[in-house]
């Protein structure tokens, strides 16, 4: 059990059924106050650069798929690092993919914003492990 919830978890995946399942897992754990789902890297950028009550949303944790149409996960990361720091926030980005290509895992290490590379599906244990690692003050 955690003593303080994350503000927001952002799920970035073009697959509707995957988003449905992962949203269910996030909401079931009750580790975050809210869960936002978008379907592409571009939608994720649009969300991060939007404002809610005059402030950028700044989710705590972003689960990012690699293979998406329009803007894939790698392209998102290239654009993400160019955002203003107040749009990036203190975000932990985790690649969440079905890719078993070791090149993808290695490529993820080239992005300083990526803190993890996990295989789908998202699980309660995976979220808790990331909270323990990156947000120990909330445990």
Question: According to CATH, what is the topology?
Answer: Rossmann fold
Widest sheet: strand ordering: 2-1-3-4-5
Total tally of structural domains: 1
Q: What's the β-strand tally?
A: 5
Spatial separation of the terminal alpha carbons: 7 Å
Just name the CATH architecture: 3-Layer(aba) Sandwich
Helix content: 25-40%
The CATH homologous superfamily is called Response regulator
Q: Give the amount of beta strand, in percent.
A: 15-25%
Rg result: 14 Å
Order of SSEs, N→C? EHEHEHHEHEH
Described by the principal axes of the CA atoms, the overall outline is: globular
| Largest sheet entry | 5 strands, parallel
Mean pLDDT: 94
Structural class: alpha/beta
- Number of continuous helical runs: 6
The CATH class, by name, is Alpha Beta
Q: Extract low-pLDDT stretches.
A: none
Question: Could you give a short description of this structure?
Answer:
The chain has helices at residues 16-29, 41-49, 73-80, 85-88, 102-108, 124-134; strands at residues 6-12, 32-38, 61-64, 92-97, 114-119. By secondary structure, the chain is an alpha/beta fold. The chain has one domain (9-55, 65-138): 3-Layer(aba) Sandwich (Rossmann fold), CATH 3.40.50.2300.
